[in-house]
Amino acid sequence: MAVSVVPAHAEPSKAQVESQFRGWISRDLWPQAQKAGISKVVFDKTMARAKLNWSLPDLMPPGFPPPKQRPQSQAEFSSPGPYFNESRMQALAASGRALAEQYSGALKKIEAKYGVPGPILLAIWGRETGYGRAKLPYEAVDVLATSAFMSTRKDLFTRELIDALHIIESRDVDEGAMLGSSAGALGQPQFMPSSFLKYAVDADGDGHRNIWTSVPDSLASMANFMAQKGWQRGRDWGFEVTIPKGVSCAQEGPDLAKPISAWAATGIQRASGKAFPESEMKASGMMLVPAGTHGPEFLVTPNFYVIKEYNNSDLYALFIGNLADRIAYGSGAFSAPWGNVGHMLRSDVLTMQKTLVAKGYDVGKADGLAGYKTRRSLGQWQQKAGLTPTCYPDEGLKAKLR
Questions:
Q1: How far is CA 274 from the centre of its chain?
Q2: CA distance 126 to 131
Q3: Counting beta carbons within 10 angstroms of the beta carbon of residue 155, is it exposed (0 to 12), middle (13 to 18) or buried (19 or more)?
Q4: Over 90: is that where the pLDDT of 344 sits?
Q5: The whole model's pTM is what?
């Protein structure tokens, strides 16, 4: 199909881009879908009703100016405290406890099969879509097709679009009922199509993997995801702790794991005052100080990093862990407050990272974000410089770290 060429000096109209989109479907997308085993009937029926969604972020329509780059000098950090908004956490926990009773039978079966406790699944469900109550306003095929045609990550979304066609071909869902987010994440668990194909299961026995309207399918699919990512049956996600002053915060990270008993021997105790479960003492744990000494401190298990497979963020995994504990035990907020660590510019952190690298420290990726390797390296440098380690970039260190 011929595609109209727009002169370089003229910005194309949306109508011209729509025309190019139809040409792209037949000329570029169909050969890839055909090679992936999609039938012509399903492809034509689905893509005939696909339309561009101009409201999506990070679009680069052909012939239009590229999206403006966000300045790296702007403030990137704010205190993690608002992420754990207490009224929101309490509301989610109350709903989660009610749903734990309502779906207790299904959750017991799911835990027996996959090893993932119900409160963890409920917490993810609550965080992702408000226990399925959040509106999913987008037809996924429209989002994926738009992003495959004119986003900043065309290849990724082309693969996801073809995976969505596989889902439609399997008759698990009609294309019009395949609703999702503006990023193309599907249904109540917010799976991308590739994750749906790998992890979605039919738990209610109706012959369809339905993560849109079936709660058992949604919960079991999340459990299957967690199990396949390495969830360790019978283990907790982690514990809020207090780290004594003589114990350095620069021991953070999954690569410095040691038995919980070894951490306890250094004087680290649970913030709740309870003993660590006997079943955990010989198993490995890792120090986690997401705000350095300016916030809550944790010993986490490998299951914490499995939660991060769902969303690669320490704060996300802590949100899930805390909400799961509230659902399971009626507990509350973390004991220690989140300090005011929100005044650093990303460019300042990047400068610190480059200085640490020049001094021989491993900061991970020098990107202006304070990940655990940056926090750890900063603490190690502070220790070497005769300073009390805080393991977090702050204004006071800018002049000292040169």
A1: 30
A2: 4
A3: exposed
A4: no
A5: 0.92
